[in-house]
Each structure stands twice: as C-alpha cells, then as structure tokens.
C-alpha cells in the first residue's frame, strides 16, 4: 500500500467538549477508472456522530462508503456528503472512513474535505497511477498471506453478480444488469454469472454455493482471522436469495437464465446487453432434474448451517427449501439436461446418484434427522457411491460426500473411502514438473484446489493429517507463486492481467466494448478482476497470459470455491501454529 501522511487539525463536538484529532490518507489501490482509499483519523476521545463533505476536482461517476452503519446523504457532481446512518461511536484511537471513487475520464483529485463542520484545510495528493494492489512482503517462512487472497477471492464473486447491485458493491466498473430476467411473473433478477460470460447456469452455480458454505461452516475461524466473515456471508446470501426466487413452488426450480450459444457470441459489458430478453429454463414434475434439485438442496442445507447462528429466521427459510427440493430430486428422478439446455456446457456425466447422496448428507448434518442418514445408505448402495472417484467437481460429488460423511458420522467405511481418494490423488495422479497435481486441462488449478480442499477435510477427521495438509499447502502455494508466478489476478508476482472475462476486459465508459476493443485488445484487461483464479497451466507448467485461451485463462465461479475454502483452512492452521 502507498501511504501519504499529513496532519489534520479540526474540531469534533463531543458532549460539549472540543476534541482534536490527526489523520492520514492511504490509497489502497488504483484501477483504471476507480480507486479505493482510507481516511484514517486518530481520535483523542470518543465521537458519537459524524458527517463529512468531500469535494473533488472534477465530477465523479460514483462514490461508495464501506463503513458499516454509514451512508451517503447527498451526491451531486463533484460533492459527496456522508455520515453515520444511525447513532454510533468511534474512538478514542484510530478509525478510518473507507471510500471508493469511480470516474470516467480525468482522474478526480480530492481537493478538500470537511468533517463535522470543520475544514480539514489540507492539500490532498492524487492517487497513484493505475496498478495492481502492491504485494505485501512475503512471510519469513516463504508462506503466503492466505487471508489477503481469501478477501480478494470474495471480491471476484462480487464482480460476477447479476441484478441490482447493493450499495456495498466494491467493484466500481460494475453496475446493475439484466433487471428484466424473469419467466412470466416469476422474478429471476440476481444471482451470479457463471464465468467470463453472462449466463446463469444453475447446476455449477448451486455447487459453488454449497462449497463456499462448506468452507464458511468448517473454517469460520479462518474467515474471522481475515476479517472477511461478513463479506463471505454476503457472497453466499447473494446466491441463496436468488435460489429462493428460483424455487417458487415445491416442484419447480429454475436452473438456467440465458442461452450459452447466444451469450458466447456477445462480447461486452453485462450492463450493455443488446440481444433482448433472455429465456429462463426450469425443472418440473413432468421434466425433472435430480442433479440440479439435489445440488440446490445441498446449497440450501449448507446455507442453513452457515446462517443458523447469525440469522435464524433466514436459516429456517433455507432449510424449508432444502427439504422440499431434496424430496423433489428423490421422488421425481430425471436428468436435468433433458429439461434444461445445458448439456453442451455442464452435462452431468456422473449421473444424479451422487447429488442425491450429497443432498441427503447435508440435510442430515443440518437436521440430525435419521431418515436422511438412512437415505444416504440407500443411495450409497444403489449408486455405488463408495467407489473411488477421479476428481471432486461440479459434476462428481462422490469425494465430497465420502469425506463429509466421515466428518459427521465418524464411520470407518466413509473414512476408508476418503483415504483411498486422497492417497490416489497424492500417489498416483500425474504431476507437472513443478509439482501441480494435473487432473484436467480445463481448469487445472480448479481441480488441484478441489482435491486440496477435500484432503484438508480428511485431515480434520484424523486421516494422515500431516501428509494431507502438506499436500494441500503445496497445491495452493503453487497457485499463489510457487509455480513460478501467481495465477490469481491482482495478487503476487506476475499475476494474470488478461483473463478471458468480458466485463473486466472493457474500457471505461463512455468507450464502447466489443470484440475489437475488448476481446481483441492486445494489452491487459482494462479492469483488474481481483482475486480470480485462472484456469491454470498445462501438464508441463506451460502457461501464457492470453485472453483468447479460454482453457487456461478463463475464470469461473466454481474455480474459486474450494480454492477459497482451502485458503480459509490454511489460515486456521497458520493461526494455530500447525501449518506444515
């Protein structure tokens, strides 16, 4: 981070007393067209209420304050008035006003600011030139700042949001999009874009939500240590709120909005979509989809566990949806791609048996109702769910089911299955010369992160903890820099700058964005897609940062899910002093 120090002399009214303070302005980062900064105040006494007026040299396109309990009271041209929304207090000690500025053309300098009626009377300094976030110094033992990458990963999910964005939106180049997503009178606005495109593919969408919930539930301490628990809950709530809309009745669930073929022919901002209203697709009793309904049930049940202590009413709603969708998946069996045109993008190669077992296991964990555990046993036999899978992914949940059951039942049969999978991955799977487990050319880092997360889970239940944790750390550290470069956008040494991703490739408004100046721009993406894990290298560690390479350089919401959970798990180990 770049620091600019100055002294602020002003007066704060506190219970009839005058309170002096000094402060500093810190530019956290500057991307093309926006920057983030913190105005730190070192308060000598407690301040109960506050209001600040910022005046910029030029008109700004957008301003956001990221302090809980604060709000923008007025914004016009180059002036913004902010303050606390409800009575709160700060100090004594250091406190900051965290703000984001979006601009179109000339970079707007903060000319002066007034705090509680007093002019700060200070010369403010321009933000630094556009750049990626400065890399923090490496840790003495060569490890990485997992907590920093975890926070960036959550920002990637914010960049993928569809619908009407909240005031807390931190991705300044993004705006409201696809506000007419619907099917008749069913509101389907919201949710997440799948990858570098703008389709909402429900099957991988529900999967990544389940896995993010899993990480929050089992590695909450890692999120708390990083100061990211609330952001993480906000990220999964964005999914779950959408899924509630997508499940308007017991035997209806919407599993896709947008057409993959049409969408992939469009390169531009989601806010500028020009191809008309999008179709939405659903499963019903007449055209069921057990993979989709089962995975959505797992997302709701794991969401219940994430929210049951912080928002019990909301959690109860999630559990109701989970139970209904599981019954739908189990009673009306069918392959979801028979109802929804996703087969060319997310075909269910493993069938729906793994999702039925997966959903039942999550419901057992959420409710402790034995009928769900009985159902797991039935599905286990019917679909041979104890066999050793080749991966853990949006398609094949068997490895996740096995280790989840080992965790919640302590049954040796499930432990043996989990151990067989991790031993296979560690001992038998091909590796690159630099040590990456290489399972598939499509998102090689996604696959290595997925198995790292599974083996961290296995270690937690006492299965070869030293071996499995060392393996997981090795795989995650490869993505962060041990492979010779960072594969996380905006982090570390030589990170990707040209991911295959539409909105971040677009220049600032009012410039248009299309294949010519977006996809085919020979330079880096105009916007930084903070925290996105790119697909990754080939089997010989070969990688080129090429926007046109959608195999190695696309990003996707499922890529970051287990990766983020593994970061939280490693952060817990680091905090405990047990990181290998």
From TrEMBL:
Residues 498-520 are annotated as: Disordered. The active site is at residues 545, 554. It is an enzyme of class 3 (hydrolase). Residues 504-520 have a biased composition (Low complexity). One of its GO terms (biological process) is cellulose catabolic process. It catalyses: Endohydrolysis of (1->4)-beta-D-glucosidic linkages in cellulose, lichenin and cereal beta-D-glucans. Its EC number is 3.2.1.4. GO terms for molecular function: cellulase activity. Keywords: Carbohydrate metabolism, Cellulose degradation, Glycosidase, Hydrolase, Polysaccharide degradation, Signal. Residues 146-567 form the Glycoside hydrolase family domain. InterPro entries: 6-hairpin_glycosidase_sf, 6hp_glycosidase-like_sf, Glyco_hydro_9, Glyco_hydro_9_Asp/Glu_AS. Residues 1-21 form the signal peptide. PANTHER family: ENDO-1,4-BETA-GLUCANASE (PTHR22298). Belongs to the glycosyl hydrolase 9 (cellulase E) family. This is Endoglucanase. It comes from Folsomia candida (Springtail).
